[in-house]
Amino acid sequence: MQKSVQYxxxxxxxxxxxxxxxxxxxLPMWHCESCEKAPQSEQIKQYRWAYRxxxxxxxxxxxxxxxxxxxGRLRPLLKWYLDTISMATQGSLLDIAIGDGELTxxxxxxxxxxxxxxxxxxxxxxxxxxxxxxxxxxxHEFILANVEKLPFPSNHLHSIACFGGIHVFQNRIKxxxxxxxxxxxxxxxRGSILTRPKSVLAQKICNYYVxxxxxxxxxxxxxxxxxxxxxxxKINKLQRNGFMLLFEATK
Length: 251
Ligand SMILES: C[S@@+](CC[C@H](N)C(=O)[O-])C[C@H]1O[C@@H](n2cnc3c(N)ncnc32)[C@H](O)[C@@H]1O
Ligand SMILES: [Zn+2]
Fold this sequence. Notes:
This protein is of the alpha/beta class. The chain has helices at about 35, 40-55, 60-70, 75-85, 100-110, 125-135, 170-180, 200-210, 220-230; strands spanning about 5-10, 15-20, 25-30, 90-95, 115-120, 140-145, 155-165, 185-195, 235-240, 245-250.
C-alpha cells in the first residue's frame, strides 16, 4: 500500500507518495506521481540524463574536477558541511541537490545520527545512491523534486543546505527565490558554489559541462551576490576555497 507523507507537491499541490525503485525494492523515497508521469521539459530531460550517467562515477570525478578546475580543497569544504549539519538544531536540515549523499556522509558521519535530513534531488539515480549511502547514518527522508518547486509551505525550515547545486540549477534566481520562500526568517542557508575559474582552458571545460547539462552556469562572485540579493537572501559569510565559494545566508 502506498503511504503519503506530510508534504505536498510544489507544482500541483497533490500529496507526495512513496515509490519503489526498478528492482521492486521499497525505498523510503517520495515523489509526486502525477508530475513524474507528466511530460518533462527538454531541459529537465537533458539534466536527468546527464546526472544518470554521471551517477556511475560521480564521487571520483567530482573530486578531480574540484581540484583541477576549481582549485578547491576538500578539508575546508568538509568543515563547512559538518558545521552546517551541526548548526541544524531545530529539527531537520533540508539538503537540496544532495546528489549521491557521499559528501554529506563523509563530512557529517559523526553527527548525522543526531539530525534528520530531508534529502532532495532532481535525479532519481543520484537519490537512489543517496538512500543507500545514508541508510547507515540515521533516519532520513528522501524526496525526488525540482528545487524550483519545493514541496514545503513558506517559512517552513530553519536550516537549509545546498552544496554544489546553485551553479548546476537551470535557473539560479528562480531556485534561490524558492529556497528563500521556504526558509524561516532568521533561519540559515549554507552551502558551496563553484564560480567561474580563471584560466581559459578551465572556462572552456565549464562551457562544455553546461552544454552537457552537468552545469547550469559558471557565474562570477559578483553575479552570485546579485542573485542572492534579488532572491531576498542576505549573505552573512563568504569564504573562498579556490574558485569555490562557501556561503552562509539568511533572509
Ligand atoms: C554537482 S551535484 C552535487 C551533489 C552533492 N551535493 C555534492 O556536493 O557532492 C549537483 C546535483 O544537483 C542536482 N540537480 C540538478 N538540477 C536540480 C534541480 N533543478 N532541482 C534539484 N536538484 C537538482 C543533480 O541531480 C545533482 O545530483
Ligand atoms: Zn505534482
